[in-house]
Amino acid sequence: MSAARPIATTRSSAGMPTGRLAVWWVVVSEIVIFGGLLASYIMHRLAHDTWSEQAAHTNMWIGAFNTFVLLTSSLFAVLAHKAAEEGDGVKASNFLWMTVAGGATFVVVKAFEWTSEITHGYTITSSTFWSFYYTAAGLHALHVIGGVVILMFIATQARKQMELHRVELIGIYWHFVDVVWIFLFPLLYIAK
Amino acid sequence: MSEEHTHHPNYVKIWAVLVVLLAVSVIGPMFGIRVVTLITAFGIACVKAYLVAKNFMHITATQRFVPYLVATALVFMLLFFAGTSPDVMKPDGNNWVKPGWIEVDIERDVSLHGAHH
């Protein structure tokens, strides 16, 4: 082990590697952020029946397709974790690139979806429903984009058999992003 | 890499269950029955989230304080909801009424909603 290795690789805190502990702290912080946003959405949605007619303009099939894409990308992320634990960096890297493809597909589909909605006049200032819609889905999409960037970095390292413990760490984050979408999908696309 | 090794279940099988649950959550609300929609859309979302957290994030295989931390964050979310929802969801209460600007906001929403049709 060289002296240049990051502290998170070598140090253990609270019975687990500091890297994993840090990612769980990130996840808990994110639960508060997304939880607050979704709780606000739910209480406003329950208080305003007219929102259902606004929600009727969202495309459930696009939402369902993107849910499928994220669930599948989560499968690839956990298979990458398994491969990394077996010490197979190349296989882990391949699975991580498949996860990247899933994330990229999600963002491209979302871009087309938003373009269609905006050109039909449904913008972030159209009504409070659309403000919530773009804020929640946009914040989630930013997390997907951030995750994709980190995934690409870790996939490149994993191919060289470097820092394989990071495969699990980005996996935890990516599954969390998936879980957030699992709740956004029925709230924004199904409840009409 | 850490010295620990995670127990790896059959991930493809879990993914298949998640996809089936997704299909049910899409088909369920098509019946237009409120209870069925709530169960199939939101109940199944909770089941899917649990399956991902347990099998993909391995939350039950990590140190016990991790699920407690996550549960604490969720409890804070519920506290936030309980503390603020009466103000949002009720038009009036004991010794208070909703401020006029909120009514103006609602009217704006309704008029914009009408403009789209």
Please give a structural write-up:
The complex is a heterodimer of chains A (192) and B (117). With 192 residues, chain A is mostly helical. Chain A is built from seven helices and two strands; from the N terminus they run αββαααααα. With 117 residues, chain B is mainly alpha-helical. Chain B is 69% helix and 3% strand. Chain B contains four helices and two strands; from the N terminus they run αααββα. In chain B, β1 and β2 form a beta hairpin. At the A-B interface, β2, α2, α4 and α7 of A face α1, α2, α3 and α4 of B.
Give the helix/strand layout.
The complex is a heterodimer of chains A (192) and B (117).
Chain A: H1 7-10, E1 12-13, E2 16-17, H2 18-47, H3 51-55, H4 60-85, H5 89-119, H6 128-159, H7 165-190
Antiparallel strand pairs in A: 1-2
Helix pairs in contact in A: 2-7, 4-5, 4-7, 5-6, 6-7
Chain B: H1 11-27, H2 34-56, H3 65-89, E1 92-93, E2 96-97, H4 100-115
Antiparallel strand pairs in B: 1-2
Summarize it.
The complex is a heterodimer of chains A (192) and B (117). Chain A is mainly α.
- Going by helix content, strand content and strand pairing, the class of chain A is mainly alpha
What are the segments of chain A in which pLDDT stays under 50 over at least 5 consecutive residues? none
Question: Residue share in helices of chain A?
Answer: over 70%
Please indicate the count of domains of chain B. Answer: 2
Question: What is the count of helical runs of chain A?
Answer: 7
Alpha plus pi helix count of chain B = 4
Top-tier CATH class of chain A: Mainly Alpha
User: How big is the Rg of chain B?
Assistant: 21 Å
Largest sheet of chain A: 2 strands, antiparallel
Question: Which key phrases capture this entry?
Answer:
heterodimer, A: 192 residues, mainly alpha, Four Helix Bundle (Hemerythrin (Met), subunit A), two-stranded antiparallel sheet, 7 helices, 2 strands, B: 117 residues, 69% helix, flat
